User: Fold this.
Amino acid sequence: MNENEATHYVTTLTAAVAEMPLPLEELLRVGERRARQRRIGAAAGSLALVAAVAAVVPGAMSLFDNAGSVQVAGQPTTPPAPTPSGSSSPGPIVGVGVPELEGVWAVEALIGDDGTSLLTDEATGLDASQRQIGFENSEISAQVQCSSFQGTYERTGEDGIRIEGGELKGAPYSAGCGGEPPLRERLLAVRHISAANGHVYLHAENWMIIVDLMPFCSPEREAAEGFPVCDSGGPTSTSEEGPEKSPVTPSPSP
Amino acid sequence: MREQERAEYGDFAASQWRRLVRSGVLLGCSLPEAEDLAQTTLLRCFIKWRHVEQAADPNAYVAQMLNLHRQSRRRRWWREQPTDQLRESSARPQADLEAADAVRRALDGLSDAQRQVIVLRIFLQLPEVEVARILDIRPGTVKSRLSRAIAGLRRDPNLIDLHQGGAS
Assistant:
């Protein structure tokens, strides 16, 4: 047998392969999201470095106009359009400031204490209903991939926040789970909150970003997902099933 | 990624898709696993698009990525979806499918390293130097591995049966 014969056998096998068409749109959508998360992870790492410097050099943070806010690399610099009403989506976030948290948010990124993204490919490929956080009447309820969390939150001061609670057992999305992010551990580490360019960020004590949130119903997120995410009644909505119900809407207090 | 880059990436992905899936099958993956592997490789190409563009031989660069991913991961693709539509392969002539199956079983008899050389050198037609670089071995080793792989196929009973069946 020479190389030509080997080529013949290889061709015999490959000719019998009937692959599916290239899922280009999916690749582009997930690729953009992964690239964005990498940028956020890099920004979080930079922020942790700044915080470390500030801890060593007194007054260093005064060099920044708004040390608590994060300008995420690659994010648009113009303020986002107001969020459509008619759903449990949070209110509009304009420019930089401390936002209202009430409502349902899509988790765009969950960052580990080493600055890396904890969301797996599986999680970023899921629709946002399986990675979201709801805030309502001092209660927080979160679902990220296989992990669920339910508890309470308290705003302390202008940009402070404390979260308490525990992981739920029997998460509803258990199929294919494995290596799920340590959601509870990360949420309990949240101490600060900030907002910039349509995103809300939950930070650790040292201002490192832990969670990147976007309003569950917003034009920006619709653009990121590539399909209507909520029935906002707006011109882009094609849903005929009414507003999307959140599986993590907080339950009433006992 | 800018609009023009997205378009360029789209063309590139379309040109690589079939090669990557088939490379995966030749390397021993099932078809869904091979599609998974190809998608993951193309996703990495999206994230590292600048590197792909600047590569002296993008085909070799992608082949290297495929090889790395195959070694580093063995998990399900996040977009795997059930379907009630049968693949086109089921409509192919039985003789073709049997021949393909015989080749698959013959390749299963080779070592992983020999399969890699078959894929990179015979299927993807990469130069020996590139194959050596991708596998981090000397060009002479590529040659000897390929020679042993071909000898293994020559002795394989599945292919001998196939020959004899075709001759009869």
